[in-house]
Amino acid sequence: MDEQAGLRDVPAVVAGSSVAGVRTTAARGSVAVTADSCFRIASLTKIFTCAGLVRTLRDKGVPLDTPAVELLPGLAPDWRADARLTVEQILGQVSGLRASVDAATVAALGSGDGALLEAARLVVRAGNEREPGERWSYYNGNYFLAGSLLAVLSGTTYESALEENILVPWGLSRTGFATPAGPITGWNGTAELPPLGYPRTRRPSGGLWSSVSDLLTAGEVLLADRALVTEVRRARTRPDDAMTYGLGWALGPSGQMYLNGRLPGYRAAMVLVPDRDYVSVALSGQESALSALARLLSAMQRPLTGDDIAEAIDDFAA
């Protein structure tokens, strides 16, 4: 961490790694932080939504290639998307959906229990701009659909389904949608930002708070579920796509799984190397810190893989 010049002026940074369950963590910055300090993790939320949905489908014996409209009958009257669109294509960001539903539109739907399904309705009502599977394109609307699928299949709200299927079984006591005690606030340069709200309708794509310790646990548990990790790390993209992508994760040249997330005042990034039982994560209270976090995580995994993936982590679309 001390070698990364881009981290020297960041108020709060925490990073950690787990190699076969043996952990190392470190923190720096003018704000006192530890591995248990909670940050907004932004798009890292998608890995939890994805894992929850894949596990729920598996438990119910529903194939990933099931057309999504069959699982969301309440949206059928408004379904203008391709009827062949599968759950797998939604999670893999190869849905081909028209990316026309923005953050402000879904935030205006309110915070009732039915608001997320209404956000999903807007997504499928907009239809497709290309055939499912034709091209990778990052779109948060895919995860409004994924969260709705998880809720409907579980017979409860998205938040309750995620808690019951992932957060509690995995022992993630510092991870949740409610603002935790003593959260790390975000910064823009030297200015501390006011507390950040996050619309309920967008939660499946980026609403969680979490800590380095909990994210290391999540990575360890995920890697221990060999069937799950095999499923999510299988590429759903074509060779000429902008990147290689599985379900919720970008894929590196030596089988790394990685992603980053951003919100005003926050950056988060995570790398797994499944074949080496390796997890690493870095959280910061500064949105501009991504390049330094990417170099840090790349340097940490490089002795295991020989790859420099800093540019790939930095360029990821979150």
Structure keywords:
single chain, 318 residues, alpha+beta, Beta-lactamase, 2 domains, six-stranded antiparallel sheet, two-stranded antiparallel sheet, 12 helices, 10 strands, globular, Beta-lactam-related, Beta-lactam/transpept-like, Beta-lactamase-related domain-containing protein, AmpC-like
Q: State the end-to-end distance.
A: 23 Å
Mean of all residue-level pLDDT scores = 96
Our Rg estimate from Cα atoms comes to: 18 Å
Class from helix and strand fractions: alpha+beta
Shape call:
globular
Overall number of domains: 2
Provide the CATH architecture of the largest domain. Answer: 3-Layer(aba) Sandwich
| Biggest sheet: strand arrangement | 2-1-10-9-8-7
Q: Report the helical percentage.
A: 25-40%
Low-confidence stretches: none
| Beta strands, count | 10
Order of helices and strands: EEEHHHHHHHEEHEHHEEEEHH
Please count the helical segments: 12
Percent strand equals: 5-15%
CATH topology (fold) name of the largest domain: Beta-lactamase
CATH C-level of the largest domain: Alpha Beta
- CATH superfamily (homologous) name of the largest domain: DD-peptidase/beta-lactamase superfamily
Largest sheet: 6 strands, antiparallel
